[in-house]
Design goal:
Helix content is 28%, strand content 29%. The protein is α/β, with parallel strands linked by helices and 323 residues long.
């Protein structure tokens, strides 16, 4: 292992149970050492996603790992490499990198240092702060993979993006426009200007209208909400179109409704892909893709930051800094 100087112990947050955010507890741990193909990253910032909240309630990765003695959650991260393991170029030491660590297994980014597979990180664009880079992890990659790998979105197609002001949504609006689609975004009226500023062609205030009451047919729906949003979306999708859900609770009733309308129902599954991370990084570098950080919290208040995510109605991303 090659390394620069770094401290032997670190602050972290451990998930101690499945009762929710209150089960995140501060802890002091030894700084881990990178193994073959890994780097040790000194964390400067991390970002939070709805799945982080779900995990604290026993859903997501914790449900399968509840007998694990020590679980440090978190996936999105940006920081500086301070050590590398066997097979990793020594000249990465000192480089600022960002990415998504070990998803869907516990990534361990709720800490001052994290060990990460080198292939799951890429160089941080110089024009971005660590906070902005961390924010463009899981959410930006989800938006990109959904539109390109799942929807295969084509120029001229019409796409409805639910929660268009949120973490995934605000990236998806921008990327769908880049791909040449006609974009309709839903949010509350308070976020209308923000959604339109991202490039959306139309906005629907979900607090005032249901999409099946006001919209012409679309080719694709990107659904981050589930429930009523899914049910009201199916009737406006063209026969042969698709609804892509980021939710895990797709019901048999929804599947039957989709079948009746000739609509494909797809559950999105994130896949770690270095090429996709580099594609997102390139767009961040050129300014084609912009990150909106709603609020930044200090590391000591990470549970409070997660509560803000749990309350929804966030424009863009919620981040935590350690700088």
């Amino acid at each position: 292992m090659y390394s620069a100087a770094y401290q032997p112990f670190m602050q972290a947050f451990q998930l101690t149970g499945t009762a929710g955010i209150d089960d995140l507890r501060p802890i002091v741990l030894p700084v881990p050492s990178p193994g073959a193909g890994q780097v040790l990253l000194h964390v400067h910032a991390l970002s939070l996603n709805p799945i982080d909240v779900q995990t604290t309630y026993g859903r997501g990765v914790y449900a399968a790992l509840q007998h694990q003695e020590l679980l440090v959650p978190g996936w999105d991260v940006s920081g500086v490499v301070v050590a590398v393991g066997e097979g990793v170029a020594e000249d990465l030491i000192g480089q600022a990198m960002f990415g998504v660590v070990n998803f869907p297994a516990p990534g361990g980014t709720y800490a001052e240092y994290v060990v990460a597979p080198a292939r799951e990180l890429t160089l941080k664009p110089v024009s971005l702060s660590h906070t902005e880079a961390a924010a463009a992890g899981l959410a930006a990659l989800t938006a990109w993979q959904t539109l390109t790998n799942t929807a295969h979105l084509q120029p001229g197609q019409r796409i409805l993006i639910h929660a268009a002001a949120g973490g995934v949504g605000h990236f998806a609006v921008q990327l769908a426009k880049e791909l040449g689609a006609y974009v309709i975004g839903t949010s509350s009226g308070a976020s209308r200007v923000f959604v339109l500023s991202l490039g959306a062609d139309e906005h629907v205030d979900y607090t005032q209208q249901q999409v099946d009451e006001v919209m012409a047919p679309v080719d694709v729906v990107l659904d981050t909400l589930g429930g009523d949003a899914s049910r009201h979306s199916i009737p406006i999708i063209k026969a042969g179109g698709m609804l892509i859900s980021l939710r895990s609770d797709l019901s048999n009733d929804l599947a039957a409704l989709a079948l009746a309308y000739g609509v494909s129902l797809k559950r999105f599954q994130f896949v770690a892909c270095p090429a996709n991370l580099q594609q997102v990084a390139a767009r961040l570098t050129t300014g084609e893709l912009h990150v909106h950080v709603a609020r930044t919290w200090p590391f000591a208040l990470l549970p409070e930051a997660l509560r803000q995510v749990a309350n929804n109605h966030v424009q863009g991303k919620v981040c935590v800094t350690l700088e």
